[in-house]
Design brief:
This protein is about 20% helix and about 30% strand. The chain is α+β, with helices and mostly antiparallel strands and about 110 residues long. It has one domain: 2-Layer Sandwich (NE0471 N-terminal domain-like), CATH 3.30.2020.30. The strands form two sheets. A three-stranded antiparallel beta sheet has the order 1-2-3. Strands 4-5-6 form a three-stranded antiparallel beta sheet. The structure holds zinc ion (ZN) (2 copies).
Length: about 110
């Protein structure tokens, strides 16, 4: 993979609840806030041993939004959410995989055909 694909140039909270990331390879990633919150894989949200979800999606407000986003080392971001959750670490590699921008959604759809 192009190493620039894992290098964010700009990380922005958009629409008051979603996240947009401009990557160094030119890709602009988009992540709906609630989707990203439910994708959290921290020990409070997912059983570390079994991978089973602990987080009940119904306990996450519809309007959950990131309050702050900070880089963790050179490989991930940590998001503090307005529902009080702040342990979630999102590795850049994973963010590229779960990207929900129009181009990636079209790509996923094409592959699952
Ligand atoms: Zn979590
Ligand atoms: Zn994308």
């Amino acid at each position: 993979m192009d190493p620039r694909a894992l290098q964010p140039l700009d990380i922005e909270i958009v629409n008051d609840s979603d996240l947009a990331i401009s990557w160094a390879d030119g890709h602009v990633g988009f992540f709906p806030g609630r989707f990203l919150r439910l994708e959290c894989k921290c020990a409070e949200c997912v059983q570390e041993m079994t991978g089973e979800p602990i987080l009940d999606p119904e306990s996450v407000p519809e309007d959950v939004a990131p309050e702050s986003v900070e880089p963790v080392g050179r490989y991930a971001v940590k998001i503090t959410w307005n529902d009080g959750h702040s342990n979630g670490i999102y590795p850049y590699e994973r963010l590229r995989q779960i990207c929900r921008c129009d181009a990636c959604l079209a790509d996923h759809a094409a592959k699952s055909d």
